[in-house]
Amino acid sequence: MNQELHYHSIEELVQAATQAGTTISHLVLHQQAAQLEQSVEEVFAQMEQTYQVMADCIEPGCDPNLRSTSGLTGGSAFLMRKASEENRTLTGSVLSGALYRALAVSELNAAMGRVVAAPTAGSCGILPGVLLTMEQEKGFARKDCVMALFTASAVGMVIATNASVAGAQGGCQAECGSAAAMAAAALVELAGGTPEMVSHAVAIALKNILGLVCDPVAGLVEIPCIKRNAAGAAGAFVAAELALAGIPSAIPADETIWAMKKVGDAMSSSLKETAEGGLAVTPTGLKLHQQVFGSSDPVSCSGCRGCHSGS
């Protein structure tokens, strides 16, 4: 396959896949193999290993005794999994399964157990949460879930090229928003949706999280980041369900990405990973900062900011 992809736009991906009569993931896999001068099998095996790393995070991430180094977080994935497995949830095993898996990956990351940048450490649980759930709860083949990662990665590259995936640059909309869009795209293709539906899912996921600030309490990738991973996983399912039902986004994906960049550029620096605004400077946020660092001054945690993006 000689299809040339430049990852300049979602529309480019959609047109290329539509014209070739195939999926976005198929195009990306073959293009990456050609670019890396490796076989398709070798490139797939590398992505399969990435998927396995994600899968390996779930059990340790659900340990009831897991705690982050700061002591601020841990144990949420265990509680969510328990509720899911005991059928005590409002939405059933698919959404609750995605929630606990997203929490597990995020909490393990915060505990320095394993860093999965997908696309960043701060948003690491969203993509694994939805794909591992599709495999475990819906019975999708692992091979197909791995292929969906190629679609997700293509969407991530387009966003990174035209906007940002870093909280320090664009707020949490750039981190959890990008991850939710990537996950929504993966879900749609996995469920048999068209490339055009993939595009609509990306736009809907980003629209629904547009403007979300990055305000880590104590400058750490824990509060509210971990719970935002659960919300991002849920948002990915919302976007995918709408797109698969044939509901289009009124604003195209590429224009939505452009809007996200503009919103990020206009966002105050206090709301972009500096821990100088939002939840970080609430009375409780400052108290937690003092609990961890012995100071209620959020600026004193500047040394911790670099750990957030993980990209």
TrEMBL record:
Belongs to the iron-sulfur dependent L-serine dehydratase family. Pathway: Carbohydrate biosynthesis; gluconeogenesis. Residues 20-280 form the Serine dehydratase-like alpha subunit domain. The gene is sdaAA. GO terms for molecular function: 4 iron, 4 sulfur cluster binding; L-serine ammonia-lyase activity; metal ion binding. Its cofactor is [4Fe-4S] cluster. InterPro entries: Fe-S_L-Ser (IPR051318), Ser_deHydtase-like_asu (IPR005130), Ser_deHydtase_asu (IPR004642). Its EC number is 4.3.1.17. One of its GO terms (biological process) is gluconeogenesis. This is L-serine dehydratase. Keywords: 4Fe-4S, Gluconeogenesis, Iron, Iron-sulfur, Lyase, Metal-binding. Pfam families: SDH_alpha (PF03313). The keyword Glycoprotein does not apply. It catalyses: L-serine = pyruvate + NH4(+). It comes from Candidatus Allofournierella pullistercoris. The keyword Repeat does not apply.
